[in-house]
Amino acid sequence: MMIIKTPSRLHMTLIDLNGSYGRADGGIGLTIDKPNFTLRCESADKGITIDFNENITDEEIKKEAINKIGISAEKITSHFNFEKGFHFTVEEAYPPHSGLGSGTQMSLATAKLICEYNNTNMDSIGLGAILGRGGSSGIGMGAFDYGGFIVDGGHDLKDKEGSVLPSSVRPAKPPQLIGRYDFPKDWEVVVGISKADTTVTGMKEDDIFEKYCPVPKNEVEQLSHIIFMNLIPFLLEENIQSVGDSINRIQKLGFKNVEVTRQAQNVRDLMDNMRQFGAYGVGMSSFGPAVYGLIDKNNKDVFEATEEYLGEDGFVFKAKAQNHGYELKK
Fold this sequence. Notes:
Elements: E1 2-16, E2 23-44, E3 48-52, H1 59-80, E4 85-92, H2 102-117, H3 124-131, H4 139-145, E5 149-152, E6 155-156, E7 177-181, E8 188-194, H5 205-212, H6 217-236, H7 240-250, H8 254-262, H9 265-277, E9 282-284, E10 290-295, H10 301-310, E11 314-320, E12 327-329
């Protein structure tokens, strides 16, 4: 028997959805220590079977887990011609389509367990290529393997047939990581998730890329400068106020601005209110609806204020950065 426990991630932004300089995508994100996806695996004579801890009752979570585990297991066993069967038990899981990257963690966890059972060592970049993950972003794979604050370098535009459209339209191999940094242990992250339309206000993700890309070149240039000359240096200097200011500025640029403005009004209101409550920087993870804000010992009341504000219209939790990847027990 083996058990794997994965972190989740905040996808802060894609960097370049203009493509004028010959590359596309790229991104930054943060690994957080909750919520977790925990999967137990036992060998079986043949086939793939899946069940759930009795505490997991959400049918949407179950449906997504069955789908991701089943597809990932089939792809990995077929690719390597593994003959063993496997029985999986989902011990912990969190809602899909919340902006926390559950799909990638489910897929990679499944593939990693099967490979470990067959004494096959492969990192998430290799696994992602087999699974068809990472065609737009490598943040989830970096979080799975290494944790911390992750930067990925995107794709050669030639690998995407000259297009900045997402992986569902222009498949590409997973991107290489170009940076990984420890995140300060005494900083915390308040994550608020409003009850919202998780289909991005009715438009399919592919349609949004089609309509709004390429984004203006000057915004990509500004965004790149903020990331590499502000956010990351201030992170290394542990200047939380300036990191927060960088996060706030990112929300108004490039494709992140498209994601934010396409979200439901209550999600954007949550962002505004968390800033007013005193969070150092507030951003939306991926397409949302998860919203995050940075806090430390000087503004801990942001959590209580956000919790009171959301009430029954969502939920909020505190997390810390996780500066390591998955945990595997044999």
